[in-house]
Design goal:
heterodimer; A: 325 residues; mainly alpha; MetI-like fold; 10 helices; B: 301 residues; 2 domains; 78% helix; 0% strand
């Protein structure tokens, strides 16, 4: 009897233990499967895009990138017009948005009275929440006409000797797209920069001010060098966002497929915008496959942008980790 | 006058004046930048509200567009009931797909995964988050639509792919805030790990998870690009069935903005106003909740 007891207890305990471990394994298994699913999903995205683009890639090869023209009638497709338009609009937006965003970030970290910081931070971040289709609607019906009537003629008459500021033709233009993209990437760059500026050790700032620098000299000499890498990463992420933005750009850029021109005040096009505009017309075969090819370019660019930004962030984090240690 | 000993003194003071002027100018520029950023938001919201609010009426939510209007029969400006219904169904199903999936990924990453895998998964989530919405749309087009045709479900799946990294990352962040002492206390009492995770740790994070989910909903409710490829070829009739293509609010705005007549624009502004108010209210509420729940978790710790 006593031997019975002795064997009974360990058996029951180990049964309970096994049930416990089974539950643990089940949760770990299900959660692990979900994680594996997420990883597979990214692979599947890449695979499906490549698969869809295969026909166009094998037909046009890398010449697709330099061929000007998008001619479904003769089955001749090229991305040069869109690549050029994407480069002009996103770099233009980056050039406008970066100084603005740095100004906002400096205002929020160095200048603003404390009661104003919270509300302004929230308002700038709210800007990022406005859907691109609403920005596009505003861009096409409100911003476009204003730019065409007032801003573009002024720029053309004062800076018209630069080919970028050519004759004004339409409110749906490359310039409108640049302004719209500027609004859309401003919050990203400014919120990342703000966090970077907040991370600058106050001893460094106080040391500079103690040496008699003005506030701006302190910003230029301490804050900017300290946050340089992070700001570069923020700019890269902003660029990625601008390149991938389809809807708002397709609504305001005018969807020209004709050729490459430098006049910002004329209609243009961009990779993502062309995808949004041309999808409903495309017939299966080379045409659709060429759209997948455009998507493949966007996908590769977004991967590049994210990995680059991550690399910079990690390097900066490591360096700053060493500096504070 | 300056031939006396005053000259050497006045030179540095000139330089100081210049430095002060530069400083003041830069400060002004920063103030200006902040003013511009806030003004942009105010202008966009104000122009949508001014044009949208006046176009809102009961018809907007109860009637659908008049398909005969393009032939000159009747008034085009009626309602977008089918778009609102479609958006609710599409986003609702997307949330049901992404929420459990994202929470499970977060549980694995924060509670089970070895350190090395943790970094890898969060990198992949970042990459997924960085893929443009339109590429996700084309992916779902190639995956589902090319074989089976458009449907609300395909649109939901596309939105769920966009929501997944948002939900997972938000959940990982709040799970990391839960103090280890709580886990240790539970495990020390002999509670198995899975019950500790699901019964003790996860309930602590409910506020943060809900916040993350609401922010993700606010983000994808306005997405147009993924729906364009997956659920855009629709009629003007009411439809609740997600196995058919469903209309949606963003798509309605997108299509109406390209029309020429002012009555279509009025409808687009009204839809944009409703969408914008929904997104602003939900994301502001979510942020408020997030601050509150973060304070609460902090207090437990």
């Amino acid at each position: 009897m006593s031997t019975f007891d002795a064997t009974d207890k360990p058996v029951r305990r180990s049964l309970a233990g096994r049930r416990t471990r089974f539950g643990d394994l089940l949760l770990e298994g299900v959660a692990g499967a979900a994680t594996a699913g997420a990883l597979i999903l990214v692979g599947l995205i890449a695979y499906k895009i490549v698969q869809g683009a295969r026909l166009s890639v094998s037909t046009f090869g890398l010449g697709f990138l330099t061929h000007v023209g998008w001619d479904p009638v003769h089955n001749q497709f090229g991305a040069a017009v869109f690549l050029f338009g994407t480069a002009v609009t996103s770099i233009g937006a980056l050039l406008l948005a970066t100084p603005l965003a740095l100004g906002v970030a400096l205002f929020l970290t160095e200048l603003a009275p404390s009661w104003i910081r919270g509300p302004v931070t929230a308002l700038v971040e709210t800007l990022a929440a406005i859907p691109s289709v609403v920005i596009g609607l505003w861009g096409i019906l409100v911003l476009g006409p204003v730019l065409r009537e007032h801003v573009m003629p002024f720029l053309h008459s004062t800076l018209g000797f630069i080919p970028l500021f050519g004759p004004v033709t339409t409110g749906t233009s490359v310039f409108t797209a640049i302004v719209v993209l500027t609004l859309m990437i401003l919050p990203i760059i400014s919120s990342i920069s703000r966090e970077l500026f907040l991370g600058v050790p106050s001893e460094l700032k106080e040391a500079a001010l103690g040496l008699g620098t003005t506030r701006w000299e302190m910003v230029r000499g301490v804050i900017f060098p300290y946050a340089r890498g992070g700001v570069a990463a923020a700019m890269i992420l902003g660029l990625g966002r601008a390149v991938g933005e389809a809807i708002a750009v397709s609504m305001v850029i005018g969807a020209a497929t004709t050729g490459i021109h430098w006049n910002l005040f004329d209609a243009g096009n961009a990779i993502a915008a062309q995808l949004a505009n041309d999808y409903s017309n495309a017939t299966p075969g080379l045409w659709t496959s060429s759209l997948f090819y455009l998507a493949l370019i966007l996908l590769l660019f977004s991967l590049l942008v994210n990995l680059l930004a991550q690399m910079i962030v990690r390097r900066v984090a490591r360096r700053q980790g060493l500096a504070t240690r | 006058m300056s031939a006396t000993g005053l000259t050497p003194l006045s030179r540095p003071s000139d330089r100081l004046t210049r430095r002060r002027i530069v400083n003041r100018a830069m400060e002004l520029l920063a103030w200006l930048a902040a003013a511009i950023a806030v003004a942009i938001l105010v202008i966009v919201v104000w122009s949508v509200a001014k044009r949208g609010a006046s176009a809102i009426n009961l018809d907007l939510f109860t009637k659908t567009q008049n398909a005969l209007a393009q032939f000159g029969i009747g008034n085009a400006k009626q309602g977008l009931a089918n778009a609102f219904v479609g958006s609710i169904v599409i986003v609702g199903i997307a949330t049901l797909m992404a929420l459990p999936f994202g929470i499970l990924v977060a549980i694995y990453v924060n509670e089970f995964a070895p350190r090395a895998i943790r970094g890898g998964v969060s990198l992949v989530l970042d990459v997924l988050n960085g893929i443009p919405a339109i590429v996700i749309g084309i992916f779902v087009f190639g995956l589902i639509v090319a074989g089976h045709g458009q449907s609300g479900l395909a649109g939901s799946f596309a939105l769920a792919v966009l929501m997944l990294p948002l939900v997972a990352r938000a959940t990982i962040e709040v799970l990391a805030l839960v103090p280890d002492s709580l886990r240790e206390a539970s495990l020390g009492l002999g509670v198995p790990r899975w019950r500790t995770t699901l019964g003790i740790v996860l309930p602590q994070t409910i506020g943060g998870v809900v916040t993350g989910a609401v922010l993700a909903v606010a983000r994808v409710a306005g997405e147009t690009a993924p729906l364009l490829f997956t659920t855009s070829v629709v009629g003007t009739q009411m439809n609740w069935n997600p196995t058919h293509p469903l209309f949606s609010v963003p798509l309605a705005i997108f299509e109406l903005s390209e029309a020429d007549d002012p009555s279509s624009h009025a409808l687009a502004w009204a839809a944009a106003f409703v969408l914008l108010m929904f997104i602003l209210l939900t994301s502001l509420t979510a942020r408020w909740l997030a601050n509150r729940s973060r304070r609460k978790i902090g207090r437990v710790a």
